[in-house]
Amino acid sequence: MKVKMAISYPTVGASGRTGDWRVFRPVINQKLCIHCYNCYVFCPEGTISPELGVDYEYCKGCGICANECPSKAIRMVKEE
Amino acid sequence: MMAECVEEEETSVYVTGCEAAARAVIIAKPSVVAAYPITPQTEIVEKLSLFIGEGRHDCQFIAVESEHSALSACIGAASCGARTFTATSSHGLLYMAEMLYWAAIARLPIVMANANRALASGWNIWADHIDSLSQRDAGWIQFYTSTVQEVYDTILIAFRVAENEGVMLPVMVNLDGFLLTHINQPLRLVDETLYQEEFLDEINVPHALNLDSPHTLGTLISPSDNYRVQHDRKLGMERAKDVIKEAERDFLRLFGREYHPVMEYRSDDAEVLLLGMGTLAKEAEDAVDMMRFRGIKAGLLRLRQIRPFPDDEIIDAISRSPAEKLVIIDRDYSPGSGGILSQEVKTRLYDAGIVKEIVNVIAGVGGQDVSAEDMMEMVELERGEHWWGI
Question: Where is the 4Fe-4S ferredoxin-type domain (chain A) (predicted)?
Answer without folding.
Answer: 24-49, 50-79
